Automatic annotation (TrEMBL):
This is Catalase-related peroxidase. Belongs to the catalase family. It comes from Methylobacterium trifolii. Its cofactor is heme. Keywords: Heme, Iron, Membrane, Metal-binding, Oxidoreductase, Peroxidase, Transmembrane, Transmembrane helix. The chain crosses the membrane at residues 20-44. InterPro entries: Catalase, Catalase_core, Catalase_sf, Catalase_SrpA-type_pred.
Amino acid sequence: MSLLNDLTGASPALNPRAVLLRLGAIGGLVVGAAGAFAYVGGWFSPGTLTQARIVDRFERVNGPHPGFRRNHAKGLCLVGRFESTSRGERLSKASLFAAGQITPVTGRIALAGGQPYAADAATTVRSLALRFQLPDGEEWRTGNNDIPVFPVRTPEAFYAQLLAAKPDPATGKPDPEALKAFFAANPESATAAALIKERRITSGFADDTFRGLNAFQFVAGDGTETPVRWAFVPGQAETAESAAQTARADKNYLFDEFETAVRRAPVRWHLVASLGEAGDPTADATRPWPAERTSVDLGTVIVTATEAEADGNCRDVNFDPLVLPAGIAGSDDPLLSARSAAYAQSFARRAGEPKAPSAVHDVPAAGAGL
Ligand code: HEM
């Protein structure tokens, strides 16, 4: 067999012209695939906002932190389960809402922002990301923040806001003129910022409410679609700030308090869906839905253990909001596809980088090591 036959796997031997044609076709495929990647990456459209540009802007604003998420960089992994109340069964065919269903869950609590070693602060936006592992390999991944609405309506506004809110190294605060110009161009963000500022700041993660903010659709067995927004509402009472927190001696006090709380007893959140009605905005996460909308308690997330970020746990997961099981679908909210694309870009970059240890370590159990 000739060398050319070895390369093409063809047998019997082809004439040289046929081989050239085949190699040309393969070359065409390679160029086509590269072109498709370049197109998706936005290289042919320099004015267009792409996932690469969004993630570049995170890096410009926060500086380089190889191996870490470009946003919500400081975090701690969770392990637990979800117990269904069965009240979601009529709204969504997702198996996790079926009567008696218990679904394994892993997740991550985190602080918004791209600084993996920032000191915990009461007013930093907190997040709860969860990965529900349903039977038959289906998954539901969801990222939720402890604010009532999202500060921007579109990916373009997100991109502009990242730069406008960048702290000035001289003052540690954003440039007031840049912020003013941003709010003038995006008045819905000014209204949202006021709602976010008014929110109640709880003492920690365990007594905080985390919201999906974007609208989704629940799809029932008979095909009926219901617009929903969900929240994870704490199952434990609000706690007062501890002396340790007040002293702020511990740079990781929010995470350490949460680990200690989980060690004492499982931490619970009710998954509550708010059902949208005609006219409720599904494509504008800056606007809340009326508080009187019907809400349904779908079940309880029960966190039984925490784990510092490490190889193979929540550190290496992309909580893409469009990883959804049958029975939950996306909406016309333009942030959803932008999030999905930007998270994939952040994940791809960090997955290929060397890893430094997370700022949040396992807190030794009381009495351990004495
Ligand atoms: C266009 C808008 C948005 C952009 C560009 C964006 C960007 C990002 C990026 C790049 C990450 C890091 C992903 C990774 O490396 O795994 C991230 C994490 C996260 N985002 Fe967004 N985000 C957007 C909107 C939102 C909204 C509306 C929410 C609503 C709650 C949200 C919640 C979260 C959460 C909870 C995480 C942390 C997930 C984890 O712990 O891994 N984001 N975001």
